[in-house]
Amino acid sequence: MAHPAQVGFQDATSPLMEELLYFHDHALMIVFLISVMVLYIIVCMITTNLSDKLILDSQEIETIWTVLPAITLILIALPSLRILYLMDEINDPHLTIKAMGHQWYWSYEYTDYEDLGFDSYMIPTQDLAPGQFRLLEADHRMVIPVESPIRVLISAEDVLHSWAVPTLGIKMDAVPGRLNQTAFIAARPGVFYGQCSEICGANHSFMPIVIEAVPLNHFETWTALMLEEA
To answer: Which architecture, in CATH terms, is 13-47+57-86?
Structure first.
């Protein structure tokens, strides 16, 4: 998760987020090279009084500074389009979960099971246990198996919400009357935090998302306990 004074992104937990991080570094390097080149040209123009008529009026130079930006845009666009299509891929999910946004909490329903669902509220500050994070802990976590494709169906019951977990590379709007879907794979066990990312009213800051990725046998034990309680 994020920590104070963090400059970069959170560590990637899903293959998709790893791709997004690689693309970020790729685009940032291109921007850095362009910035250095432009700064160099500006400094040269300011510090020298010499001029050359071949530079001031040259068809070859005009061709170069038209073609080079086009090539640069292609180098950025192709990886971007690849990741864009990867984000829409949903192939044979092992588990489907419906996340419903409310003012101001989330409810989860495991649609592959007959009666497995619960509401997830933020734990108030005064009730936090030692080591828990303020404004990020929920009384019920969304538990998923590790290394399994998970499909999440996202909607809302009242106003616009947004289901976002940065370390998984997920941000999907929850729109009343509309069912959006996304998919991810948790590559390692852990607890991953997110928050509603669409201003949805007075308590917008108090509806966290907590995902706990566990091995498959632990997930099966958890589902059995939840079904017994239901």
So the answer is: Orthogonal Bundle (1.10)
